[in-house]
Amino acid sequence: MKNSWIIALRELKERLGSRTFLITAILGPFVILSFLYLLFTYGGEGKQNWKILVVDPKLPNCSTGLFDNKIMPSEDNAIKYQFLNRYVELEEFRDAPEFQDYDALVEINEKVLANKVCFVFFRKKPSLRMQTQLHYQIERRLDEIMVQQNLNVSVAEFRKIKQPLNLTYRDVYDPYDTSSDIRSWVGMFFGVVIIVFIFLFGMTILRSVSYEKSTRIAEVLLASVDSRSLMLGKIIGIGLAAFIQFAIWFTLIGLGLYFMRETIFPDVFDPSNLQIPNANGTVQDIAPQEYNAFVELVFERLNLFNMIGFFLTFFIFSYLFYAAFFAAIGATAGSENDGQQFVLPLIMLLCFSVYSGYYVMQYPLSSWSDFLHYFPFTAPVVVMVKLALGYEAGHGYELYLSLMILILSGIAMLLLAGRLYKNGILQHGHRITLFTLFRWMKRQ
Amino acid sequence: MLEIENISKSFFRKVALDHVSMTIPSGEIFGLLGPNGAGKTTLIRIINRITEPDHGAVKINGELLRQHHLSLIGYLPEERGLYRSMTVEEHAILLGRLRGLEKREVKSKLEIWLEKFEIQDWKSKRIEQLSKGMAQKVQFICTVLHDPKLLILDEPLSGFDPVNVDLINRELLSMKSEGKTIILSTHNMKSVDEICDRVALIHQSKKILDGKVTDLQESAKTGEYAVKFQGNMIAFVNALWTGFEMVDKEVLGADRYLVKLKMRGENNLEDLLKTLLGQIKIEAVWEVLPSMQDIFVNEVQSKNTVIHEE
C-alpha cells in the first residue's frame, strides 16, 4: 500500500502541476458561473421592473378615470403604474420623449366594462409571468368596479368573498407531477457533475496508462510495485486530483453565487419579491413556476447539505468503478491509438448514463427505472435524481441497496481490471479481441 | 545467490521458456545470452516478479522469491522508460522510494552517483532535455541507487558511446568486486568476453549451454596458436615443415606477421618455440581461445541444424 501511495502522490503532483488542470480548475467554475449569470439575467426576466402607463380617460360627468386609485402600484415592486386621464395615441406613446420611460401602455376606456377588451402596447414583449400579473391585477380591479356599480356589496366585502382560485393541472398518468418536478433537475445536476468528472479523469487514467505502456515506464515501475498496486495508485492519485478539482469548483462556484446574491442580483433573491401584493394590502405567494425557475433551482431547492453526503459517496464509488474500467482499457490496448478507439464507446456509455437520469425523471416508477437505479453504470445519475425527488416512505433502503451494489461492483471491477492490467500492460502491438480479453480475465 | 528451478512459461500457444534451470552464484557477473525472441526477457521478468511462471520457482539466497525481495534487486529493462516531464532528481526519488529508500537517502546517494559520472548539473534537468545516452545514464543510476545485491541489466550498453561503455563496464566490475551479483543480458559479446564470469545461452525457449566463460572457451578451443613475429615468411614456413599447419596469416607491416597455426601429431607449444627460435624474432605467442561470439554462433547454428534435420 505504501508503494500505491507513492504512485498516487506522483500522479497527483503531475496533475496539479499540469496546465490543463489549472485551466480547467479556473475556467470550469467561470463557465458555469457565466452560464448561471445568463440564466439569472435572461431566464429571470419575469422579475424585471416594469413601468406601465395606464391611459384611463376621465369618464363622462366624472373628474376621475375608471381605474383611478384602484390599482395600488406602491405595493408591487415589479410593476409601477402611472395613470393618465387622457387619450394617448399609439404613435404618441411610441415616439414622445415623455413616454420613453414607460415599458407598456394599458388602454382603458368605458367600453372595457362591456366588451372586456383591453389593449396592452408594449415596447418589449413581457414575460409570461408579467402578463399573468398584469392580467390578474387589471381584471381584479375591473371586477371590483363592476361589483361597485352593479351589486349592493362593498368592495371590502367583495374582496373577502372573491379569493383567487389557483387551478392546478395534474397529469392523469403522473398525478404527483414527478416528471416535471424541478427537484429532479437538482439530482440531474449532481449526477451530471459526477459523470463529467468521471469522464474527464477517467480519460486521464486511460491516457496515463497508455503513455506508461507505450513508453515502457510500466516495466520499470512493475519491477518495484505489483501491477494491482500500480493501478490502484494511479486511480487514487488521479482521483485525488479530481477531488481537489471538484473542491475548487465547489468553492469557486459557491463564492461566485454568494457574490452574485450579494451584489449583482440582490433584488432577485429578496424573499419579498416572491410575493404579489393584494389590493387589500395583504400579500400572496406567487406560484413557483411564475418565478425564475433557475434562481429557485439554485438557491431554494438545492439542498446542498442534505445531498452533498450522498453525492460524495456516490462520486467516490462510481469513480472507483469507472476508473478501474478505464485503467483496464488503457492497459489492454495494443497501442496508444488502439486506446483512443475506445473513447467513442466510452462517451456513449457515459451519455447513456446521463440519459438514464433523464429517463428516470420522466418515468420514475417504471421497471426500467428500477433497473437503472441499481445498474452500476447508471446508478450515480439515477440515484441522484431519485434522491432529489425523494424516496417513498419505507423505500429508503433502495438507496443503500444501490450504493451497496455499486461498492461491490466497484470491488469486482477493480479485481477484474487488475487481472486485465497485469496481463495486458506489457503486451504490445496486438489487436484487442473479446477472446483475448476473456483469456486475460481468466488468467491469474 | 539466485536459483532458477525448472521454469516454464507459455503465452497461450507460444512457449517462451521451457523447463529452464540455472544457478547464479554471488559476486559474479552472469551473462544471459541468446538470439532475439529466445526468452531472455521473459526469464528476467520472472526473476523480477513482473511475470509469473507457469511452472517452476525462483529462489534468492535460498528463499522462495517474494515481493519483499525486490528491494534486493535493481532492474534495468531493455526498453527504458522515463517520465519526460520529471527532473532527474524527481525520477531518482520516485524509483528510490519505490525500492524502499527514504527521500533523504535518495538525495545523498544521487549526489554521489552524479559526482562519480561527473554530471552534477543534470540534477534539475527534465528528462525531455536530455539526449538518449544521457537518459540511459540516468536510468542506470536510478537502477543502482538503492545499492541492490542483485543487478539485472537488459542490454545496458545499447545506445552508449565507447567511452560510456567503458565507464559502465568499469562500474560493473567495481560492483562485482564489492560482492554484488550481476545478470547481464546482452548481444555485446565483447563485453561478455571482457567482464562475464559465467554465461547461460537460451535458444528457442530452452537453455542450451551454461558454465564459466573460461570453461566454455576451454572446451570449445580448437588447438590453435597465434604467433606474432618479425622476419622472413619463407623461413617461417620452412621451419614449420610437417610438424605444424598454418591456418591463417595476417601481414602487420614490413616483415611483421601474425600467423595462426595448429599442431600436428604430438607437437606442443614447447616444440613450436624450439622450432622457431633462431629462424624469426618472436614478439608474442598465445593459445587462441574461441570468443563468446564464436561459441554463441556455433551453438545456435548447430541447434538450428539439428532442428531442421529433425
pLDDT < 50 runs, ≥5 residues of chain B? none
Instruction: Provide the low-confidence segments of chain A as ranges.
Output: 268-291
CATH topology of the largest domain in chain B: Rossmann fold
Oligomer: heterodimer
Question: What's the order of the H and E elements of chain B?
Answer: EEEHEEEHHHEHEHEEHEHEEHEH
H/E topology pattern of chain A: HHEEHEHEHHHHHEEHHHHHHHH
What is the structural class of chain A?
Answer: mainly alpha
| N-to-C CA distance of chain A | 20 Å
CATH H level of the largest domain in chain B: which superfamily? P-loop containing nucleotide triphosphate hydrolases
What is the strand and helix layout of this fold?
The complex is a heterodimer of chains A (444) and B (310).
Chain A: H1 2-17, H2 19-43, E1 50-55, E2 79-84, H3 90-95, E3 104-107, H4 112-115, E4 119-122, H5 128-150, H6 155-161, H7 182-214, H8 217-222, H9 227-264, E5 275-277, E6 283-285, H10 293-301, H11 304-332, H12 336-340, H13 343-362, H14 367-374, H15 379-389, H16 397-424, H17 434-442
Parallel strand pairs in A: 1-2, 1-3
Antiparallel strand pairs in A: 3-4, 5-6
Helix pairs in contact in A: 1-9, 2-9, 7-9, 7-10, 7-11, 7-13, 7-15, 9-11, 9-16, 11-15, 11-16, 13-15, 14-15, 16-17
Chain B: E1 2-11, E2 14-24, E3 29-33, H1 40-47, E4 55-60, E5 63-64, E6 73-76, H2 88-98, H3 103-116, H4 132-144, E7 150-154, H5 162-177, E8 181-185, H6 189-195, E9 198-203, E10 206-212, H7 213-220, E11 224-230, H8 233-240, E12 244-253, E13 256-263, H9 269-276, E14 281-287, H10 292-309
Parallel strand pairs in B: 3-8, 3-9, 6-7, 7-8
Antiparallel strand pairs in B: 1-2, 1-4, 4-5, 9-10, 11-13, 11-14, 12-13
Helix pairs in contact in B: 2-3, 2-4
